[in-house]
Task: structure prediction
Amino acid sequence: MAASEASINGSNRMLVFVPPHPLIKHWISVLRNEQTPCPVFRNAIAELGRLLMYEASREWLPTVVGEIMSPMGPASVEFIDPREPIAVVPILRAGLALAEHASSVLPANKIYHLGVSRDEKTLLPSVYLNKLPDEFPKNSRVFLVDPVLATGGTIMAAMDLLKERGLSVQQIKVICAIAAPPALSKLNEKFPGLHVYAGIIDPEVNEKGYIIPGLGDAGDRSFGTETHWVK
Result:
């Protein structure tokens, strides 16, 4: 894996980007620490999300050029094109924390909530909230935000819902704090060409569906609720 980009070989294959920014490494370290209290954990995952969305938007967002008057005279400028829709889809509930600072990075974006729970025994996903539009506007660019890509069930279900609503793989970028091979392999097999931005990639998933060493349950740790996972 390269320092800044990892590819599951081939031009038609999925690309996984792990930006080598020191702040990303810092916030991942804060998230991993089991002693990190809930408010600090939530702030850390929000800051990580901001950085990952900044990296993912590089050379992807459409711009429009023009001219304005600065206090000192005319100036050529370049803005994000407001005519091209930008959307953020956080997968509840931990996705809310990772996407918390999206509006500070992405101008004029819309947020569509998607709730997907995982059965703790079968590890299969179940959609319990769907606020996606029936069809996304033409030329939309969508950031799909899910902090933990472990077994891949949740992210695969979310990708299917986005595709059903008219989006191509090239219109979607996945943002996650941490990922593991099972989820990445499933995404690569079904959605070639997808781009995934991750804070870090860990080597394995245990029998309970948690990434090792991972960071625990991102939802429980973000919102201070009871933790069901065990070491």
Helices lie at 22-32, 38-57, 94-98, 102-105, 153-164, 181-190, 218-223. Confidence is low (pLDDT under 50) at residues 1-10. The radius of gyration is 18 Å.
